[in-house]
Amino acid sequence: MAEKYISRSSAIAARLLGGEMMVMSATDSTFFTLNEVATAIWQAADGRTPLSEIVAGKICQEFDVNREQAQRGADRFVDELSQHGILLVSDQPVMETDSSFSPESR
Amino acid sequence: MSLLAEMNQKALNLGLPISVHLDITYRCNERCVHCYLDHDDHGEMTTAEIMDVLEQLADVGVFFLSLSGGEVLMRRDFFEIVERARKLLFNVKVKTNGVMIREKEAARLRQLGVEQIQISVYSHRPEVHDAITKLPGSLKRTLRAIRFLKSQGLKVTIANVLMAGNFSDQPGVIALAKELGVFYTLDPTITPKMDGDTSILTLRIPGSELKQVFHNQELVGNVEEFCAPPPAPGEDVMEGFPCSAGHTACYISPYGDVFPCVQFPLPSGNVRRQKFLDIWNHSAQLKEVRSIRAKDLPTCSTCAHVGTCTRCPGLAYMEGNMRGPSTADCEKSFQRTGIPSANMLKRTRTGSSGPLIQIQALASEVPPIPFSLEESRLTA
């Protein structure tokens, strides 16, 4: 299976509140809250680290979850957010696309 | 409870601000007859100061950022500010009159991912709108801006402030909003000037017209529900606080002054002298605002409307007591339900004069409260 590289869209608003990430699409105003695991994936979505590496190196290390289970959950999460244009998915590492506007995650 | 309401509650529990209204200038290219601001520049924050404030707000967890004025585009660094705000991932709403927005500006707002643009429109007729803004040609330019913004796919809301001089044009503005494919919101509240001058309150629509607004199905939805008598307040109501001002939201002026809300001119600190978080956590004024519960309001706690009134503590403060009634909201509750507020009855009994004297001949007893009502928003 091809590797997935995920990055955050610039057309979103996001803020960490008490361990949960709030995310809102500027395109359609859809509002999401991410739990701790999803927040960890979100924060690691740099467009350069493969999703499998995020799962193995971050999610399985920081949370009590086995790799297979974590990968399935991560795939579902990425699929859902990508459908709303909030996460961008590529089969290649993503370079900076817009030098005048690259969001900073907090 | 919606996800947004849950996050608001979470911010409240954590004692964090989630929304900030930042006026980046009071300068304006219009001179609206009802405006509460002094448009001279008394030393606005510099670009660097505003950037620093944005960093601080992002660090403390602010999510919703309203950029307003004055007219925001009077600042040459407006797009620089928006760009920084969006890089910091704020949900940005811009309030503007649109006069300076053309295709290029609309495209830039779209590119930066601004979530919503709110534009003031007072009438569908140029002669009425332009007489309010005192800028000839302003309606034409504002509508042109709305079309540019819409063509970029931006979410636009027409804000229609209702005054005696434009009340009859309100259906025309709704029709205009429909034609343009934008949202519509109306606001029947005229507030005193920030220096306390109340002369512009004479522009307020009279009670009879307020009643028409509240009984207009197109504006409020289910009129029977919206205008139903208030339910008997429970303990949760009496332990509740009036609004988000100072609790999860606040206002910052172009001069760095922090207030609980744009309508609540209680100076609570200045970001030029203190860190925002210090003001938020330690301001005696914000602490006082946060300490007030419905049960602490001497008149309003005895009022039938205590659980459903839109009482604005800022307007009450401008009337002289942040724990007192806001007579404009007493009037709204009365015109909505036909039931006089405790403050109205008190004034009737004491024979005191004031803007509500007109209701003296009306019902003097509070009728029974048969069922509950959930507050609706005046949007269509």
Could you describe the 3D structure shown?
The complex is a heterodimer of chains A (106) and B (380). Chain A has 106 residues and is of the alpha+beta class. In chain A, 36% of the residues lie in helices and 27% in strands. Chain A has a single domain (5-89), classed as Outer Surface Protein A, domain 3, CATH 3.90.930.60. Chain A contains three helices and six strands, in the order ββββαβααβ. The termini of chain A are far apart. In chain B, 37% of the residues lie in helices and 11% in strands. In chain B, α2 (47-60) links the parallel β1 (19-23) and β2. In chain B, α2 (47-60) packs parallel to α3 and α8 (207-214) packs across α15. Classes of the chains: A alpha+beta (106), B alpha/beta (380).
Topology:
The complex is a heterodimer of chains A (106) and B (380).
Chain A (H helix, E strand, L loop, with lengths): L4 E4 L3 E6 L2 E6 L5 E4 L1 H9 L1 E5 H12 L4 H17 L3 E4 L16
Antiparallel strand pairs in A: 1-5, 1-6, 2-3, 3-4
Chain B lengths: L2 H12 L4 E5 L23 H14 L3 E5 L9 H10 L3 E6 L6 H9 L4 E5 L5 H8 L4 H14 L4 E6 L8 H11 L2 E5 L19 H8 L2 H4 L2 H4 L8 H4 L10 E4 L4 E3 L9 E2 L5 H7 L1 H8 L21 H6 L8 H11 L4 H9 L30
Parallel strand pairs in B: 1-2, 1-7, 2-3, 3-4, 4-5, 5-6
Antiparallel strand pairs in B: 7-8, 8-9
Helix pairs in contact in B: 2-3, 8-15
